[in-house]
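agent> Task received from the user: take the single chain below, predict its 3D structure, and emit structure tokens. No templates, no multimer pairing.
agent> Plan: (1) validate residues, (2) run structure prediction, (3) serialize to tokens, (4) report one or two observations.
agent> Step 1 OK, no nonstandard residues flagged.
tool_call: predict_structure(input=
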Amino acid sequence: MKSWLMIVVLVLVVASAFLFFNDSSVNLAPSKPYRAGLPDLTVNISINNVLNNSFNGSVQFLVNYTIVYKNIGNVASTNVTAMSGNSMNCIGGWGSGGAGTFPIPALSPNQAIVSQSSSMVNCHGNWSASATVDYTNVLTELSETNNNANVAISI
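)
tool_result: status=success, residues=155
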């Protein structure tokens, strides 16, 4: 019986020590502020290859590139609009370019849409492409700083 009493007293002493323990250096709260579930759309552009199709003194290059739109957030995104385009600034002073908009459907977390694109250029100079997802900024995201991508090469 004495041993049970000793155990009860020991348990009470330990429990009261935890109840009265107050040390401000102990912080069990998460170090990052809580962020509600939000989507986060990103865009990346990569050049796959540049094919030299020049013949008989003509200049002709085919630039093949890929645009990847992805949701890296923790919830699905809603439908948004994306914009992409490319341009060529020729050494001779002239150039060409074009752009367009298109819908990006709802994307689940870690889901991506891959767009294969190409551009035919008829001069030497600087070629570039750009893309923006949610360019009208209608979607609240974890980060608004990763919605644009650009790439450029000298041909």
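agent> Step 4: summary for the user.
The first helix runs from residue 2 to 20.
agent> Done.
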